[in-house]
Amino acid sequence: MNKVILDKPDMPYRVIQEQLIPKFSIGQTVYRACVRYIKGNAKCPHCSGTNILHGITNNGREFQADCKFCRSYKAKAAPVEEIVSKILITKHYIEYSVNTGVYYREGELFATKAEAMPRSKELAKGINNRNIT
Ligand SMILES: [Zn+2]
Among 2, 34, 115, 118, which residue's beta carbon has the most beta carbons within 10 A? Predict the structure, then answer.
């Protein structure tokens, strides 16, 4: 993560302020490390391979749940294109909100699809290993 050191020599004492600099900007297209649940060439038909099921409760509330049908599918690295809509900078980390409204840490987002691949493969491997045991 990039950091800039702001040196303020005009202060009575030397203040060095560290500030995190965001890697991406608002409106920029980024790629999120992600997986899709696939068997052969077919995505899980219940959730389109996203592992997220959208539902409505009996009293009309919308909810999301993990897709249980994905268990018989394999996780495959599949970075997802997102557009940065908001940036949250704290003293210790930076988070980006994307078009879906979800916030992600900088380590989950990449400038290109190719750059997002290794982390996506890592996620897929972790999921597939977990499903075997
Ligand atoms: Zn599914």
Answer: 34
Q: Residue 30 C-alpha to ligand 1 middle, in angstroms?
A: 24
Q: How far apart are CA 105 and CA 32, in angstroms?
A: 10
CATH number of 23-44+74-132: 2.30.30
pTM of the model as a whole:
0.74
Length of the chain: 133
Distance 44 CA to ligand 1 centre (A): 5
pLDDT of residue 86: 93
Q: Where do the domains of the chain lie?
A: 23-44+74-132
118 neighbors 124 (Cβ within 8 angstroms): no
